[in-house]
Amino acid sequence: MLPNSDPLIPGNKFFRFFFHGLFITGLIPFLPAVFLFLPENIAGFNYTGWAWMTMLAITLITLPAIRRVGFPLLLWLPWILYLVLYIIIDFSFPGLQLTLQYLLPLLIGVTASGFTYSPALLQWLGKRAALYFSIITILSFIYIVATGFSPQSAAVPMILSVAGALMIALFSVRKNIIYLLLFFLLLIIPVAMITRMGIVSFLLIFVLNFANRDLIQKLLFLALGIPLGLFIFHSSSFQAKTFKTGEGQIKDLSFNYYQSETINSSGRTTWYLALESGIAHSPVWGNGPRSDNFAFKEYGFKSGEGHNDYLTVRYNYGWVGLCLLLLALAGQFYWLWKRRRRYRQSIRLFIVWSAVMTLFFSFLAFMYTDNILKYTIFFPNLFFAMTGILSGSFISEDSPVLPETDVSL
Predict the structure, then answer these.
(1) Sign (positive/negative) of CA torsion 248, 251, 254, 260?
(2) Which partner from 140, 224, 267, 276 sits 20 to 30 angstroms from 284, CA to CA?
(3) Are 349 and 390 in contact (CB under 8 A)?
């Protein structure tokens, strides 16, 4: 029996069930890459679909057993109500799937916040997380060496950005160079795959790093991050993928990559054109849950994704939906920032807090070039579970979390 686990603490009955589910479902999409004989789909769903639906079931089983909620659910209530009301008014099965995908990470955050965390349980979680990230990292390296790409190539940088944020926080707290080397080891994967926003995310994590509270060290990380970014930018592989001519300069970059004459948007311009008229037609309220899928089919695609969550949320839910989502994210960031002093009582909680605060910026960055909101298994589930751990750790004064005093914090 794990110390301070399951029935030994009220409300922790499903602790291991829930967190084992979180990590195992995160591995399900990679099964075909390990067992090559598996079919691509089962009963019409791919493995990512089965993974998030399984995690939804695990969460719904666990949720009734928790006795308290520390997650700042009120901040998300307007966004939740908007999603629920919209699917009731404009129902479709694809829209229902999208709604559940958007709601699942929030349910995970609420559930994770209902457990009571001791140092032993936090250590247990750390070991399981390390195993999870190690499996994905090793599998990615094997595939990159063998084939030049990674399984779930769009999602792997998102997963590893979570690991990267934890490694850089551990380095800042523990002062162990091994963690910094592990961070750069993880960075090799998005660089090798030339996943541009994955690279940007890692550089943001390296420079921002909320665990680094010393101004001189922050300036040092910035001084190291800038030449590192320039070195990657001027590499032949990055240049070839980023610019239509195969080469370019910093001044050639544009935030509006859809209308750039120099940047290779990897097909995103076409996806934007498919949604452009619908956005103009209903800019305030949007066109309805998962209506973007119908727009892509009308444009000639069998199916599609906008590869820009700001764009697809605007299309489906309008400016109202996008503003509610961004306000909730901003509110959660501020909510955690106000409580920063509490997490310094525990080294492990401070590391998690630092990683989560840094990952807010990775979240917003990935939203600009991908469908990270729908990739619940690959990033949002982990992100909101970590937020739930933080928000559930200091719900009441009688919480059995034992401080791990460290004068350096």
Answers:
(1) negative
(2) 267
(3) yes
Torsion of CA 238, 244, 247, 248, to 10 degrees: -100
* Number of domains the chain contains: 1
407: in domain: no
Contacts for 366 with CB less than 8 Å, ≥ 6 apart: 158, 161, 197, 201, 372, 379
Q: Is residue 133 part of a domain?
A: yes
Handedness of CA 46, 52, 58, 60 (dihedral sign): negative
Asked if residue 42 is part of any domain, the answer here is yes
Residue 253 lies in a domain: no
- pTM (2 decimals)? 0.92
Give the separation between CA 339 and CA 348, rounded to whole angstroms. 15
Per-residue tens of pLDDT for the chain, all 409 residues = 444 444 446 568 899 999 999 999 999 999 999 999 999 899 888 999 999 999 999 999 999 999 889 999 999 999 999 999 999 999 999 999 999 999 999 999 999 999 988 888 899 999 999 999 999 999 999 999 999 889 998 899 999 999 999 999 999 999 999 999 999 999 999 999 999 999 999 999 999 999 988 888 888 999 999 999 999 999 999 999 989 888 889 888 887 788 777 888 877 888 888 899 999 999 999 999 999 998 988 887 876 788 899 999 999 999 999 999 999 999 999 999 999 988 888 899 999 999 999 999 999 999 999 999 999 999 999 999 999 999 988 653 344 444 444 433 3
Please choose, from the candidates 21, 3, 269, 23, the residue with its C-alpha nearest in 3D space to the C-alpha of residue 118.
Answer: 3
Q: Which domain holds residue 96?
A: 15-233+267-392
Q: Using CA atoms, how far apart are residues 37 and 296, in angstroms rounded to an integer?
A: 32
